[in-house]
Specification:
extended
């Protein structure tokens, strides 16, 4: 066996020629069934516990967990309306410190 043959022994070959299941996956945008089922169960449990009222109680009783939930649910970016742009105010405050 040549040196090159020894190096490739036991390794998968690259490329698409060896893929027997090519093109058999889910179409883009189709959710995983397990993920969809889990989401449905979570929403059902939330509804059984009181929905928005339950979440409001959790915000008071477990603020850290509630804020984690908000971070997962809220969109990561905020898109403004080009006709009504978002307005921001930047304030820089200088505070004197006694150098004792």
């Amino acid at each position: 066996m040549t040196n090159a043959g020894q190096q490739n022994r036991g390794k998968k070959q690259g490329g698409t020629a060896n893929l027997t299941n090519a093109g058999k996956g889910r179409r883009k945008g189709v959710p995983n069934r397990t993920t969809a089922a889990l989401k449905d169960m979570i929403l059902k449990a939330l509804d059984e516990k009181g929905g928005a009222e339950y979440l409001a109680r959790q915000a008071d009783q477990n603020p850290a967990a509630f804020m984690t939930l908000l971070g997962k649910v809220l969109p990561m970016t905020v898109a403004g309306d080009p006709d009504n742009p978002l307005k921001t105010i930047t304030r820089i405050e200088l505070v004197g410190v006694d150098p004792q």
